[in-house]
Amino acid sequence: MGKVTLYGIDGSPPVRSVLLTLNALGLDFDYKIVNLPAKEQLKPEFLKMNPLHTVPTLDDNGFYLYDSHAINSYLVSKYGKDDSLYPKDLQKRAIVDQRLHYDSSVVTSTGTAITHPLFWENNSEIPQARIDALEGVYKNLNLFLESGDYLAGDSLTIADFHVTAAMTGFVVFLPVDASKYPKLAAWVQRIKELPYYEKANGSPSQQIIEFIKSKNFTIV
C-alpha cells in the first residue's frame, strides 16, 4: 500500500489540522501544495478527487476525502495505533464530536467574519463587535478546559488540532490574556510543546500570520 497524499496550502488552518494529525500518527505521507491563485483546484484531475475544489483533500490510495474534520477522524480510525486521538468509547467520542462541531460552526464562522473582509474585500477596519465575538470563543474554550488539560478532557484529541490551527491566526487579532483565560493560555503553550507542533503548524502558519500583519488592520 502506498503513502497517503494530502493536498493543501500552508496558510489554511484546516490543512494544518490535518498536518498535525498525520504527524501525531507518525504516518509517512506526501504533501502537495495546490496553487489556488493559478486555479489548480479546478483542473479535471483535482475535481475528480474533490468536486467542491477545496483544500484539504486526502488521497488514500484512490480513496478521496475532503473536509478536515472528516479527514482527521478517518485517519485516526484507520491508522491510529490506539484510539486516544478519537476515542471509540461512545461518550468520550461524543465529547470530541461536540468540540469538533463547535470548531466547524462557531470557531470557524467567528474567524471568517474577521478575516473575509480583510482578505477578500481589502477592508482593513475590523468592527469591535467581531473581536468581542472572538473573545466569546476564548471564554468558551477556557470553559471546556475546566474538565482537563485538553479540550475534550485529559487526553489530546483531534479537537485540539482543529482549534489550535485556528487559534494560531486568531491571536494576531486578540492575544490570549492569561489573567482572564488561564486554562486557555496554558493549553496554547501545552500544544506548542508537542514534538511535531513546529513542523506541522508553527512554521506553516507563518505565511498567514505575516499576511494578516501586512494588512495593517485597525479595530473600530
What is the compact description of this entry?
The chain has 220 residues and is an alpha/beta fold. The protein has 9 helices and 6 strands.
Fold and architecture overview:
The chain has 220 residues and is an alpha/beta fold. The chain has two domains: 4-79, Glutaredoxin (3-Layer(aba) Sandwich); 90-219, Glutathione S-transferase Yfyf (Class Pi), Chain A, domain 2 (Up-down Bundle). Helices cover 55% and strands 10% of the residues. The strands form two sheets. Strands 2-1-3-4 form a four-stranded mixed β-sheet, covered by helices on one side. The model has no long low-confidence stretch (mean pLDDT 96).
State the separation between the terminal residues, measured CA to CA: 54 Å
- β content, as a range? 5-15%
Topology-level CATH name of the largest domain: Glutathione S-transferase Yfyf (Class Pi), Chain A, domain 2
- Average pLDDT metric: 96
> Which of globular, elongated, flat, extended, rod-shaped describes the shape?
globular
Helix and strand arrangement:
Layout: E1 4-8, H1 13-25, E2 29-33, H2 44-49, E3 57-60, E4 63-66, H3 68-79, H4 90-120, E5 125-126, H5 128-144, H6 158-173, H7 182-192, H8 197-202, H9 206-214, E6 218-219
Parallel strand pairs: 1-2, 5-6
Antiparallel strand pairs: 1-3, 3-4
Main traits of this protein?
220 residues; alpha/beta; Glutaredoxin; Glutathione S-transferase Yfyf (Class Pi), Chain A, domain 2; four-stranded mixed sheet; two-stranded parallel ribbon; 9 helices; 10% strand; globular; glutathione transferase activity; Glutathione_S-Trfase_N; Glutathione-S-Trfase_C-like; Glutathione S-transferase 1-1; Thioredoxin-like_sf
